[in-house]
Amino acid sequence: MPFPNFEGKHDAQSVFTPEDLLAGVEETLPPALVVCYQDAFFREVVETYTDGNTISDVGMGDIYRVNDDVAVMGNFGIGGPATAGLVEEKSELGVEAFCILGGAGCLDPSITPDQPVVATRAIRDEGASYHYQPPEAPAEPSPALVDSLNSELGAAGHQVVTGSTWTTDAFFRETVPEVEHYTEQGVLTVEMEAATLFSVAEYVGVDAAAVFAIGDYVTADDRTVPEASLGLLPELFEPVVGTLSASVR
């Protein structure tokens, strides 16, 4: 059975759009948005880098201004459907560049918890992206944004690793054969959102990227959580914000 089920969907008009949802709304957002999925990290960012006042009463999630160019968003859920909705909605409110900054499972044990991973491609093993792009379309971030993130993170003293990520909806169904296969293929991480972000961003015409800190190690034998799980995230925030600020000016 093809997916999505209805042939020709990608050329068809939507019944309900972000423009319909936001009709009459005059609010605008900063042109770049850092997207956070880990609640504790999001709270830390809000306390450290914002004045604690949300800047949007519209739609999903809580959004705080970091500077004139960049805001940070959290408390909107996880996974592909939530990510697709936020990209459509927030791009309609003026966001031109989105960057995930969050945790991922690591398939490569040579990557250490102090190394950020910048995704260069996402394997589409979720559902939402297929409603935005044909099955054969790649899910890739914006090349210029990836290059800038690599440079900025490197300049901040981080040993950046780049490569593919596996995006799946079903974190309790990451099976042994799949893990073995993607590990053999050199895929670095597994998570729930990157493929959707990249595909929807391409659809609406905005930039997107994803930066991950290691939350756990996933192998065919077991899953282990390092002592420094996700501890790198706070160190990555300022370089990511600097990259986004430069990208939208």
TrEMBL record:
Gene3D superfamilies: Nucleoside phosphorylase domain. Pfam families: PNP_UDP_1. InterPro entries: Nucleoside_phosphorylase_d, Nucleoside_phosphorylase_sf. It comes from the Archaea. Residues 65-220 form the Nucleoside phosphorylase domain. One of its GO terms (biological process) is nucleoside metabolic process. The lineage of its organism: Archaea, Methanobacteriati, Methanobacteriota, Stenosarchaea group, Halobacteria. GO terms for cellular component: cytosol. This is Phosphorylase. One of its GO terms (molecular function) is catalytic activity. CDD domains: NP-I_spr0068.
